[in-house]
């Protein structure tokens, strides 16, 4: 631990030099390796995209493009219902950090929540944050050339992306409200939206928040705690090097992880999840781990990671700290304002795992005390449940998805 802190201090010493250098965007990538993966016998679900996965398992999907008010072009996917009639409201699924819409279906037709909702007569929409593999487009900016494309965190995603997606869904479906299901950062995005734009509370019939992330005072991941201490210095170095896009699908770390998880999903990728999220062996199947790590690391902005670091460092759920001058210009105050979660008036269900290193019960308790309309704080009755079990766990259909359908059934009637 001491060595890490010393290293972060060293990073701080070189930042002053790097800040003065001209900024440019640096990208590195690998070509599409699909033919090689096929030859090596990769599980095809690990490299199939959303529509390919849906088609393989005999679900009809559509691809839609949503333009945000600040010019980002987001790809969202729709899974048509398997029923002749639709349930009352469409459902929006929003993924976590390092992730994409694929998270909701990659575990297969029996355990993927997107598929389960479709079979239960819901109109299912899976969104993608700006900057991930499906949403690397803008009306003016090029993500491979323009640094400004990556000047966003979850603040912009919550303030621009989620409202645009919801408005688009309502326009297409001709409905008055949506159901919202978020996982990890997908919950953060929602809390940002409904805090900054409280009118959107009226467009949400019910929000189900899986492993909610806002307050981060009690995270038990020691790596995140240490890295958060140097998040500002790390961000400055990344900016100076032109590294605004991290962990993209064609970058080397994605390729290495995907390969390792084809060979040894439980000992390698299971261990990664254990260290970072509290995962317990065999609570996610080896096959799902293999597939999931083909779909993880699909693009995130350095500013998003830095923003989460700030939540840990300052122990407040607040807007991005731009520094003294930046805060005065953007917010009109010396410090960034906190998100006012008391503005979130729509009904909310908080779904919590007892062994989650990122979304802890203590932090969720504090969040719950500030939200005015919590329908239930549902603690999954399995002490091994961790951060990603909510979407990929072998027991998620029984312990989480069944409960979601019960909540929807109740709110369909209101």
Total individual domains: 1
Distance between the termini: 53 Å
What structural category arises from helix and sheet content? alpha/beta
Count every helix, treating DSSP H or I runs of 4 or more residues as helices. Answer: 16
Beta percentage is 5-15%
Over all CA atoms, what is the radius of gyration?
A: 20 Å
CATH class descriptor: Alpha Beta
Report mean pLDDT, rounded to a whole number: 90
Largest sheet: 9 strands, mixed
Number of strands: 11
Helix content range: 40-55%
CATH architecture: 3-Layer(aba) Sandwich
Unreliable residue runs: 1-24, 26-31
CATH topology, which one? Rossmann fold
CATH superfamily: Alpha/Beta hydrolase fold, catalytic domain
User: What is the ordering of alpha helices and beta strands?
Assistant: HHHEEEHEEHEHEHHEHHHEHHEHEHH
């Amino acid at each position: 631990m001491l060595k890490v802190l010393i290293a972060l201090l060293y990073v701080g010493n070189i930042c002053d030099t790097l800040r003065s250098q001209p900024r440019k965007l640096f990208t590195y990538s690998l070509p599409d390796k699909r033919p090689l993966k096929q030859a090596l016998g990769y599980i095809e679900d690990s490299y199939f995209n959303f529509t390919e996965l849906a088609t393989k398992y005999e679900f009809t999907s559509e691809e839609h493009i949503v333009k945000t008010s600040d010019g980002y072009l987001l790809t969202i996917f729709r899974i048509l219902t398997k029923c002749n009639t639709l349930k009352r409201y469409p459902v929006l699924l929003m993924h976590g950090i390092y992730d994409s819409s694929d998270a909701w279906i990659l575990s297969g037709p029996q355990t993927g929540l997107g598929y389960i909702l479709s079979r239960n007569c819901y109109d299912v929409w899976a969104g993608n944050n700006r900057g991930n593999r499906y949403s690397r487009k803008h009306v003016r900016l090029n993500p491979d050339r323009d640094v400004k494309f990556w000047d966003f965190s979850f603040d912009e995603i919550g303030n621009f992306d989620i409202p645009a997606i919801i408005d688009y869904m309502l326009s297409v479906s001709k409905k008055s409200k949506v159901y919202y299901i978020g996982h990890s950062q997908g919950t953060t995005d929602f809390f940002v939206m409904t805090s900054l734009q409280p009118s959107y509370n009226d467009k949400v019939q019910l929000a189900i928040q899986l492993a909610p992330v806002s307050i981060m005072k009690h995270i038990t991941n020691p790596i995140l705690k240490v890295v958060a201490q140097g998040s500002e210095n790390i961000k400055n170095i990344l900016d100076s090097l032109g590294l605004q896009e991290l962990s993209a699908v064609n970058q080397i770390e994605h390729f290495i992880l995907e390969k390792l998880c084809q060979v040894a999903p439980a000992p390698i990728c299971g261990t990664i999840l254990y260290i970072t999220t509290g995962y317990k062996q065999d609570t996610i199947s080896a096959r799902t781990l293999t597939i999931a790590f083909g779909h993880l690391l699909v693009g995130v902005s350095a500013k998003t990671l830095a923003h989460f670091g700030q939540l840990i460092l300052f122990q407040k759920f607040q807007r991005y700290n731009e520094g003294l001058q930046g805060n005065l210009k953007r917010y009109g105050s010396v410090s960034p304002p906190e998100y006012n979660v008391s503005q979130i008036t729509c009904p909310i269900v908080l779904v919590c795992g007892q062994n989650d290193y990122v979304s802890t019960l203590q932090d969720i308790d504090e969040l719950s005390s500030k939200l005015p309309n919590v329908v239930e704080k549902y603690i999954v009755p399995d002490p091994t449940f961790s951060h990603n079990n909510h979407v990929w766990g072998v027991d998620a259909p029984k312990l989480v998805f069944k409960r979601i359908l019960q909540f929807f059934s109740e709110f369909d009637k209101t």
